[in-house]
Write a structure and sequence with these properties.
Largest sheet: 7 strands, mixed
Number of helices: 7
Helix content: 25-40%
Shape: globular
Number of strands: 7
Length: 188
Amino acid sequence: MKIEIRDALEAEAGALSDIRVRSKGHWGYSHEKLEAWRPAMIVTADCIRKSSVRSIIVDGDLVGFYALKKEEGLLDHLWLVPEAIGKGVGRFAFTHAGSVARSLGMETLLIISDADAEGFYLKMGARKIGEFYSPDQNRMLPKLLFRIPEELNKTTAANSSERRRLAQDLRSSPPKAAAEFDSLVRRK
């Protein structure tokens, strides 16, 4: 499995919106509920221009995206198509987002998580600091804070062949490859 993360293209706005809805559907929400939420889940070209939005590509296919809002210190989005969930892609993308955020001078990431994704962020090292009311979903969502390790900004300087090998290892052993990636970050 080859994972690439690159700047999102404005032309991908529709595809990113669809990924967001499909990803949320992974958690068992009804088609009707997802369609009711769809207007609030649209990713616009303007959003891509104004935020640090990155597309996540696996084996040449667009499978997800994340967005950072530096001014708010916010991981605004991290969404993957259901087929990519549980395969180490989210862990890779979150680590990448932390590295990019660190390079932008951010020391923490505020995360307003979908309730179903809270466990993922806690496992990644975030801690719950409260709740946030979502008027679109008419419910409370977990509010989390992740302190970005200082070493993480050196991740982008890691040897590209090492990164390629680790990305390929994610297919065969996601936890092992993710741990090795984490170890690489700590060594730098």
